[in-house]
User: Fold these one by one.
Assistant:
Number 1:
Amino acid sequence: MKADRWLRYVLLVPAFVVLLALFVYPIIYAFHSSLYTYLYGRPTGFVGFRNWGEVFGDRAFWLSILRTLIYSVIAIPIELVVGLGLALLYVDLSGRLAGILRTIVVIPFIVMPIVTGIIWKLIFLPHFGVADVIESSLGLKPLDWLGTAKGATASVIIMDFWMWIPFVFLIMLAGLQSQPDEPYEAAVVDGANPWQRFVYVTLPLLKPTILVAATLRTIDAIRIFDQVYSMTGGGPGVSTEFVSLHVAQVAFNLADFGHASVQLFIAFGVMLVLVGFFYSLIGRENV
C-alpha cells in the first residue's frame, strides 16, 4: 500500500536526524573551522586553505603520524599472532580450563582505557613500580621506563598488548568456531599432521577474520588517546605524542582549532587509506 511505503520513510527520519547530528554536522563544522584563524579559541579571520598549506609543512605533525605508524607496525602484528595463539589454545582446551583461560584473557578488555593507562603508569613507576621490583629480584638494573624515549614507547606498546590482545582473541575465536569441519576431516583422511592442517586449512579459512581484526586494530591504533594520555601524557618530550595527542595539544592547549581541524582531516585520510587497503584484501580473499 502507498501509506505503508511512506511509513517506511517516515520511520527512517529519526535515524537520519541522529546521523546528521552525530556525524555529518561535526565534519562540516570541522571543515569550516579549518578555513579560519583562531586566537584564544575564537575565530579571527577567514584565511581559506592557508591552514592546510601550513599543516602540510608542519614537521611536528608529520612526526606524530610517523610515531603512530611505527607503534602500529610493532604492536598490531604481535597482537594478531598472540591473539590467534590464545584462540587456538582455547579451542583445544575443554571444560573448566577453557573457562579460566577465557576469563583471564578477557579481563583487561573490560577495563576503561584511561584506567588502563593509570594502572600501567603505576607498574612502570620508578623505584616503586612492580616492574622495578621484578627487575631487581632478577638481579637486573631497573630501567627508567617512563623517563626515556625508548622506554616510554616500549611501555606504551606493552600496555597496548595487555589491553588489545583480548579483543583480537575474541575475533579469532569467533573465526575459528565458525569454520566448517569438512576441510579438516578431508585433511585428516589425506594424512596431514596438525601443523599442515594449521598452515593449509586453518590459516586460509581464517584470512578474512585476520584482515578484519587488523583493520579494526589499525583504526583503534590511529585514534589512540586515553591510555597514552593518562600513562605518559605524550612524554618524555614528544616521544609518545601520537597523532591524536598532537591534535589535542594544538586544539586545546594552543586553542588553534583551525590547524587542529586540518590535522584531523589528514589523520582521517591516512586511516581511510589503510582501511581501504585492508578491505581490498578482504574482498580479494572472498572472491
Number 2:
Amino acid sequence: MSAWQKYKDKNGSTPLDLLNPKSERATDELAAERLEVCKACPDVIPVVNQCKRCGCFMDLKTKLKISKCPIGKW
C-alpha cells in the first residue's frame, strides 16, 4: 500500500479532496462541531488550526463529510 493510500485510510480524505467539486461537504453544523473539538485538542496548533498528527488545516478538513480525526475524536 502506498503512503498516500495509508494517509487517506487514516484520515478519510486528502487535501486534494477539497478541490474536487464532487466531494461531499459536511453540513455547516457538523463542520462547526468538529472544529470546536479540534480547537480544544492539544494536537492542534492554535494560530493556524493545523493538526500536528495529520498536518491538515482543520478549518478546511472539517468541511469534508468523509474526513475523520486521525486520533478518533470525530
Number 3:
Amino acid sequence: MDCHNGSELLKALAHPVRLRIVEGLLRHECRADKMVKALKLPQSTASQHLGVLKSRGIVQIRKEGVKTCYRVVDQKTAPLLKILDQKNG
C-alpha cells in the first residue's frame, strides 16, 4: 500500500461525521438532501464533509436532475470499515 494514499484515506475517514456518511453510503447511494436530514446537519456542513470525501476519491457523484447522488467508489473503504466495526463489536 502506498503510505501517502493510505494516510489520506485514514485522515478523510477520521472525522465521525464522514465515517457515518461513508457507512451509510456503503449500504446504498444517497442524495445529499437525504443525508442532511438523516445526519441533522446544516447543508453547508454536510457539503464540506462530502467535499473532503470526494476530493480523496472515496465517493463519487452522479447528477439526477438538480439533485446530486453520492456513492462510495474507493475499494479499500468497505474492508477498512469492516475491520473497525469488528474492533468495536
